[in-house]
Specification:
eight-stranded mixed β-sheet; 16 helices; globular; alpha/beta; 412 residues
Length: 412
């Protein structure tokens, strides 16, 4: 048993270090703002069904509907549908007052956004008017005025699944929301933009997603896990359909203000990731091996957890065990990776965050968030463990939204 533990510890060193270096190398492509634009710009042509998933969102939905009704896109080319999912407040009334379609759904068994979207799509396919594409937002969002223009360009240039740039709507409400903002600034630049530049599949983010309607009818939605975005991404990649990235189509998403609500949200994410990993990791790895595709291998890694943040925590722990404890002396665990390797890796990983903030021209006050950001990152480790151990719990919990900001506030 002692020998087995030693071997496992040595293997873990190699895996953690190697996968982290793999992700780091991919991220380097993100330092270039975007790949050379070879795609054409097009006049408005595509028609859109804009879906807004809402459960008791009367406090925040009005600014979004005002926002959507005033997008810089011909009004006759898009309709807005609010999915009033098990609502017991005035969400449906507010939607009707804003001149959009209030689609009321009541189902106490199949709860959650994935089921609500699936129901809405079935309703949509039965309507007289059919659309070229479907866009999905959350009720707490705000959207850049050019959003549908960007999606129109992507669709006309042959893309079928597109993810927009997810920005934090309320970054300065607390140290937690600022930590979310730093995380998403990193993800947008060194995860999404990097993969776009490499020609690898991007990952859907749950909101600001655009789908070719014909593809949805062909594949079916069938993404009803706790992380419907992760699930649909996996299904697309398995079929060779790579989601792409629209850097200039911005979605402002409200983040939880307290650590407690953040932990509950992220545990739900991990449970969803774990369920998707069980269902799709093996097929994805099989495709990756047969086709020798780093892209599909990378997509398989993403399934298991928010790997970037878990790896950072793992690197910290491994560095501590190697540099600050006598474990290697007492248990004969090999230093497979030298001390300087762990030190250098930690420095490189941490410097990525302020560098991204500098490249993205974030205000000076945002840099204060770097003080507590390591605490936020480290919470991913117990959250991932709890989410994995409780992954059979598929109960959906609503994240309460209260920040009724308007799009004009995002321009300040």
């Amino acid at each position: 048993m002692h020998l087995v533990l030693i071997i496992i510890a040595d293997i873990l060193q190699v895996i953690i270090f190697s996968v982290t270096i793999f992700q780091f190398i991919i991220s380097l492509a993100g330092y270039k703002k975007r790949k050379v634009e070879t795609e054409k710009k097009h006049a408005p042509e595509k028609t859109f069904a804009v879906l807004v998933a809402a459960h008791n969102e009367e406090k925040v939905i009005a600014p979004l509907l005002d926002n959507l009704n005033n997008l810089d896109y011909p009004k006759e080319l898009y309709d807005v549908f609010v999915i009033c999912d098990n609502c017991t407040d005035c969400t449906a009334q507010i939607a009707s007052e804003h001149g959009v379609h209030a689609m009321k759904r009541f189902d106490e068994v199949r709860k959650g956004k994935g089921y609500a979207v699936e129901w809405m799509l079935n309703q949509l396919w039965q309507r007289d008017r059919q659309f070229d594409a479907v866009v999905i937002f959350d009720a707490d969002n705000l959207v850049s005025e050019n959003f549908l223009h960007e999606m129109n360009n992507k669709l006309l240039n042959g893309h079928r699944v597109i993810q927009g740039y997810v920005e934090t709507k309320n970054p300065y409400d607390s140290w937690v929301t600022l930590s979310y903002a730093i995380s998403y600034w990193f993800m947008n630049r060194l995860w999404q933009q990097a993969r776009e530049n490499w020609g690898m599949p991007n990952t859907l983010a749950g909101t600001g997603m655009c789908f070719d309607a014909a593809l949805l009818k062909e594949m079916g939605w069938n993404a009803t896990s706790l992380t419907e975005d992760v699930e649909f991404t996996a299904r697309c990649v398995i079929q060779g359909i790579y989601p792409t990235w629209a850097n200039d189509a911005i979605i402002y998403d409200e983040k939880p203000i307290t650590l407690r609500s953040s932990i509950r949200q992220r545990i739900r994410w991990i449970r969803g990731h774990t369920e998707c990993a069980r269902r799709y990791m093996k097929p994805l790895l099989g495709h990756a091996i047969r086709s020798r595709s780093f892209s599909q291998f990378d997509a398989a890694l993403y399934l298991f957890q928010p790997i970037r943040f878990l790896l950072v925590a793992a690197v910290w722990i491994m560095t501590f065990l190697q540099l600050a404890t006598p474990l290697y002396t007492h248990f004969a665990i090999l230093k497979v990776v030298p001390d300087w390797g762990w030190i250098l890796l930690n420095i490189l990983l941490f410097l990525q965050f302020p560098l991204v903030m500098l490249l993205e021209k974030r205000p000076l006050k945002s840099y204060w968030g770097l003080i507590l950001f390591p605490v936020f990152q480290f919470t991913w480790f117990p959250i991932t463990l709890i989410g994995f151990l409780t992954s059979k719990n598929k109960s959906w919990h609503h994240t309460v939204h209260t920040r009724s900001l308007r799009f004009e506030d995002m321009k300040e």
